[in-house]
Amino acid sequence: MTSPHTHESYAVLEKVAQTAGIGVEGAEPIRLAENDIWRLPGRVVVRIARPGQEAAAAREVAVTRWLSQCGVPAVRPLDIEQPITVDGRAATFWKELPAHRAGDYSNLAPLLRQLHGLPKPSFKLDEMDPFVRIADRINAARSMNEDDQTWLLRRLGELKEAWRELPPGLPQCVIHGDAWGGNVAVTANGDVLMDFERSAYGPPEWDLTSTAVAANTFGKVSRTAYAKFCEAYGHDVMTWAGYPILRGTRELRLVTFAFQTADQDPTAKDQASYRLACIQGHHGPRPWQWQAVA
């Protein structure tokens, strides 16, 4: 453990694990990023959220416990009182998955269909906010100029207004909130949904738009693969009149995320600027072949 972030994260891990009555000897970092994820002996995984995310951590635990009761294959939290908050950071404890690989959109559709078909849970689940943190990202970005900030804030206002006038769609339900293939683990015993910190009550089309954007904006999902996704789920969100609004909102989130990343990693600046130029209409029609930023 050499980096200051690793030392800081491990210090939090020690405190939350002590509160939970779990030892940390032999702990290994899995990923230290926006959320810090550690593996402990005994097949336990600890997820330490960034500051101020206590509500999201509590929601993730509540949703996954409910999914366990409903028989939906998803990650399972330990049966302890959680989340545990130390130094302003909420930690959650999970049963480690067996050997697995990351899934793709073909694995995602059946799980979303099962999730979206569930009745509304008895516990309170907030309405989805598709615009959360976008304005903060724009206003805080140091890697964009003032004209670009003004343009993005105007675009945000346009999408908010359009969202209020969305046409009727599928019945609202519990949604995953960050539904992409990487949030599916493929195990020998079947596919498992992960990462429920953005779960909410809202339009199922939001979950479907992730795959549509991967095909329509990124050019990362072939027409054949997208057609199979729609067949497995039973609906093509691109045929819905409200899809361009959801797609525009997703794209705006991805543009502002790239600029947020560029503030920390200057190598992401070119990709952030390219994404912005695309939604401004400077690179022709979709797909635009956007590349991932860390």
Question: Can you walk me through this structure?
Answer:
The protein is built from nine helices and ten strands. The protein is an alpha+beta fold. The protein folds into two domains: about 5-95, Phosphorylase Kinase, domain 1 (2-Layer Sandwich), CATH 3.30.200.20; about 105-280, Aminoglycoside 3'-phosphotransferase, Chain: A, domain 2 (Alpha-Beta Complex). It has a five-stranded antiparallel β-sheet. Strands 6-8-9 form a three-stranded antiparallel β-sheet, covered by helices on one side. A two-stranded antiparallel ribbon has the order 7-10. β8 and β9 (about 190-195) form a beta hairpin. α4 (about 135-140) runs parallel beside α8 and α5 (about 145-165) runs antiparallel to α8. It is globular and about 55 Å long. The mean pLDDT is about 95.
Secondary structure elements and pairings:
Elements: H1 4-20, E1 28-32, E2 36-40, E3 44-48, H2 54-70, E4 84-86, E5 89-95, E6 100-102, H3 105-116, H4 134-140, H5 146-163, E7 173-175, E8 184-187, E9 190-193, E10 200-202, H6 205-216, H7 223-233, H8 243-264, H9 269-279
Antiparallel strand pairs: 1-2, 2-3, 3-5, 4-5, 6-8, 7-10, 8-9
Helix pairs in contact: 3-7, 4-5, 4-8, 5-8, 6-8, 8-9
Quick structural summary:
With 294 residues, the chain is an alpha+beta fold. It has helices at residues 4-20, 54-70, 105-116, 134-140, 146-163, 205-216, 223-233, 243-264, 269-279; strands at 28-32, 36-40, 44-48, 84-86, 89-95, 100-102, 173-175, 184-187, 190-193, 200-202. The chain is globular and about 55 Å long.
